[in-house]
Design goal:
binds adenosine-5'-diphosphate, Rossmann fold, 24% strand, alpha/beta, 4-stranded antiparallel β-sheet, binds magnesium ion, 10 helices
């Protein structure tokens, strides 16, 4: 088992954003997390990635309680979260953005001195890095945009760059917060293709989405949240037909959309 979320609760003063949520993720899975706006999806991912401390409960990564670790230490262990709106350097090229992500990932993994050695001395090391960057750009369908400034990308491409940067941390489990939000139909199809390729290349995925439509084709299992609580878990179609899930979405956006 890669990840175990054990009875996690997250409070913001009086408000309970995540309430006693438990689930596990096995290596090789694609797990979806759905729920209406404000149901606690982002907060749950933040607690898992240690971007926010849990108020109660525990997060175990490969059996180790990671409650005391910093987000970068968690990322170094292979647990990486991408942001809903990626933080890219607009004035730099796509290539340089991915290189910077590599640099940060290496710095975390190997220590600053080792990075200096790699960048200063070894041509072979630099060539290997370059290969890896190219591989990730190809995987994310960004080859044509390699030399464009990140600030000139479409929203869909920018989100894809955020995923590419996350992949440079060599995640074993990649947590994606609404990767499909704000995308058009064609961009969504493209995103699904990329995520299927990333998964096939060996990365376990945990994908948050507001609506289930996007996840239905790619997630093997879906967890539904409402008001911070887990209200359903199972195969996508089963969760979709769950009366509690239908009710949670009534009056807001329909889950099937
Ligand atoms: N930093 C914060 N401080 C106070 N309340 C927050 C904070 N972050 C989220 N919340 C609240 O927690 C609840 C869950 O939010 P969130 O996790 O962003 O939901 P989702 O991602 O499902 O839309 C919401 O009621 C939201 O207003
Ligand atoms: Mg959110």
């Amino acid at each position: 088992m890669l990840l175990e979320v054990r009875a996690v609760t997250k409070r913001f003063s009086g408000l309970i954003a995540v309430s006693n949520v438990s689930f596990t993720v096995e290596r090789g899975e694609v797990v979806g997390i759905i729920g209406p706006n404000g149901s606690g999806k982002t907060t749950l991912l933040n607690v898992i990635a240690r971007l926010a401390p849990a108020s109660a409960g525990a997060v175990l990564w490969k059996g180790e309680n990671i409650g005391g670790l910093r987000p970068d230490q968690v990322a170094t262990r292979g647990l990486v979260k991408t942001f809903q709106n990626p933080q890219v350097f607009a004035e730099l090229s796509v290539l340089d953005n991915v290189f910077i992500a590599t640099h940060l990932a290496l710095k975390r993994q190997l220590g600053v001195r080792r990075v200096a050695e790699l960048y200063g001395g070894g041509r072979a090391a630099e060539a290997a890095l370059r290969d890896e960057v190219e591989e990730v750009l190809t995987l994310c369908d960004l080859t044509a945009a390699t030399h464009q400034l990140a600030g000139n990308l479409s929203y869909g491409e920018e989100k894809m760059l955020g995923i590419a940067m996350g992949l440079m941390c060599r995640p074993e489990l990649l947590l994606l917060d609404e990767p499909g939000s704000g995308l058009g139909r064609e961009e969504l199809t493209n995103l699904a293709t990329v995520l299927v390729k990333v998964h096939a290349a060996g990365t376990t995925l945990c994908i948050v989405d507001h609506k289930i439509g996007f996840l239905r084709g790619i997630a093997g299992r879906v967890i539904a949240l409402d008001h911070g609580e887990k209200i359903a878990e199972g195969p996508p179609d089963q969760v979709l037909d769950d009366p509690k899930v239908v009710e949670a979405y009534l009056g807001t956006t329909r889950a099937r959309a």
